[in-house]
Amino acid sequence: MAEERKLKSVDYGLEKIFAGAQDFLPLLGTDYVELYVGNAKQAAHFYKTAFGFQSYAYKGLETGSRDEVSYVVKQDKICLVLTTPLSSKSPINEHIAKHGDGVKVIALWVDDAKSAWEETTKRGAKSYMEPTVEKDEHGEVVRSGIYTYGETVHIFVERKNYDGVFLPGFVEWKSEYNPDNLGLKYIDHMVGNVGWGEMNDWVKWYEDVMGFENFLSFDDKQIHTEYSALMSKVMSNGNGRIKFPINEPAEGKKKSQIEEYLDFYEGPGCQHIAVATDDIIATVKGMRARGVEFLTTPPDTYYNAAPQRLAEHNHELAEDLATLKSLGIMIDADEEGYLLQIFTRPVEDRPTLFFEIIQRMGARGFGAGNFKALFESIEREQELRGTL
Ligand code: FE2
Questions:
Q1: Whose CB has fewer CB within 10 Å in the chain, the N or C terminal residue?
Q2: Ligand 1 centroid vs 142 CA: distance in angstroms?
Q3: How far does residue 39's CA lie from ligand 1's centre (Å)?
């Protein structure tokens, strides 16, 4: 298995923040991720029960929102907004009819939403939302937005003059049902699937429009199995807090998993949300106990080879290998450390969006050493779906 290829030796540590002059778009982090779903009430229950999110904020008929309802669930720094239209007239219906449940908004936290919109639209972004001030008794929030791949959008959120719950228009969501959180801390990266031959256009878009850099690249010779292949480039913003790998399908003997996604999502969109934990064993045990379905565990040969793969990079596993194996958690190493990761099955009936749970033990890569085992696992499931 080929190694991840480092394109730049820049320090992407979280502590290092580019000076404003170098980064025209300082992004402070991911603000929230909004999913358009068929039934937000039930989706919120799923993310609370299965993933350990907590009730956080709400807007709906009771708060004067006549067209749509949104439940916001939170776990440490991760905010998911689950939105459903309240009538057939809402344009959100078209999104759901076409794509099924999926990510509409990847919101980015900024200091100045007006400037973020001006700088990105000046560089070629298509506007989704002009800078808009929203106010309530807790202050004001400025939001603006641009389109990225497919119908997905980035919304810039400026909240330095706001101390209310989430955003104006929302109230605190108090629930009597509060399952324990499962140790998910922040969004590590979010991956976009784009169409055939479109990856480099989107790499250039993130470079030109957002000032991102290409951090890592994988080609189809590195990411392939006997049957299918894909290509991926990881884009990072200046301070390394935001990482967006972009995938496109590649030719193989059978259908690429990216093509399966594009067929069922009916276009480009967010493929997975990777969420970080400090204790993946406890997190995955909890998620499994609460009914989250994960991809099948790699074979014995994979785990037998794992100590050797770590030793090649002079790392020692702090976790018990047998426990990792029993939970299906995968291990990858690079010169700086290792990482532990596992992937859920799609979280809706269409084989589209899924989640990754990741614990970084020094490694800054994306598990390239696991791609082959991972893709073989996905192919076994594609086979069952008749879409390989
Ligand atoms: Fe990932």
A1: N
A2: 30
A3: 27
